[in-house]
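Progress report, Aim 2. The chain analyzed during this reporting quarter is listed below.
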Amino acid sequence: LGGGGRTNGAAVPSPPRSRRVSFRASPRLHRLHATRRFVSSPRMSTAPMTALSRPRVSNRRPFHGLSTRTKSARAARSRWVAARAAGDAKPKAKVAVFVSGGGSNLRALHAAMEDGRVNAEVAVVVSNIPSCGGVEWSRERGIPTLTYPPKKGEDGLTPDALVAELRDAGVGYVLLAGYLRLIPPQLCRAYEDKMLNIHPALLPAFGGKGMHGHHVHEAVVASGVRFTGPTVHFVNEEFDKGKIVAQRHVRVAPSDSADDVAANVLRLEHEVFSHVVSALVDGRIRFRDGDGVPVIVGEDGVEE
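Predicted structure tokens for the chain:
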């Protein structure tokens, strides 16, 4: 029905006309409306951003290439691997290891030789205690053993005979791995700058006669020092007086016992001794002009 009219004789009122209301939008609403139009524009996807599409933000410094030292180290390693593959690697050096106890450093050295970290092999094991764990371990693996010095009143190797035995076995280097006897002058002269010792403290502190094994760690704890660690040095005719080649350090906590210190130092002994022996048999230890201090030269040619 359009407009007013009658239905069954009754008057029907006309529906109210719609009124057009106009208002002036505030600038804020204009901005909101414009923003909504922009977001819903078909030219821009509203799909959620994935991990791949998200812009990456990093606070890391930009990469500008490998350092010269890293490049040199990798190049030296590549040359060494290529030489071994071609069969041009140097023959393994033969070493004698001297022990007086369980031989944990002997075992660590042997493992480093087996996996190629040290280009050498154990030719003979020497001990002043034929029944010690290091000797038994060696015999189980077919490594020849010698006893030096003999017990009082017993016949055995003299210093000169010991040197002759090592020469006959082709030994080029001597390694003292927990050996508790003074090395005779004849052996020091025969293997000058080719004989290393591992000491369980930071020499020149806590060294000398009687300072070995657990005695060292007890003295370290009693002194109150805050750091300790192993020292690798060349051997001369005095206890722990040879030139120092390398050291490692570990913190000594106020609550540490001598056993705690011993365990922490032993772990570093196994690491640093193999490292120095590798440099020695590879000819990578030079002696500083003037004072003769030994310096390790890394495989990349950089002094340590």
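The chain has eight helices and 13 strands. The helical segments are 27-39, 68-85, 104-114, 133-140, 159-168, 185-190, 214-223, 258-281. These observations will guide the mutagenesis work planned for the next reporting period.
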